[in-house]
Amino acid sequence: MGTLTYDNTIVRFDDRVLTHLQIAIVRLFRRELSFPMSWKRAVEAGSGRGSLWMVHTTPVYFDFEGSRIPTISDEWVARLEDSAMSSTGLIVSGEHGELVGVGASTPVPAYAFAR
Question: Could you tell me where the beta strands, DSSP code E, fall in the chain?
Fold first, then answer.
């Protein structure tokens, strides 16, 4: 499982999901777009859902567990980007549009980001 760190939150995603999110988010941020991103937590992570307001001026860190870049699906990336532009925002989904359970989101202490 890789992690996405944004503001004071860390969210764990499967590396392949995280790779596709990275591509979609970077493309959106390059256009200086802001959007909500939401995900379903896996049962083992306590169920429920989480959401972030993603702003292109806030740094985001993608940390992958594996060293190999997975096969990229252009259709999946496009679906994630399209989702971000909808009224619901970017809904984290699998390659075929299914909701995927992700690891827990964890608040990060503010001092962790102190310079």
Answer: 2-6, 9-13, 35-41, 49-54, 60-63, 90-91, 101-102, 105-107
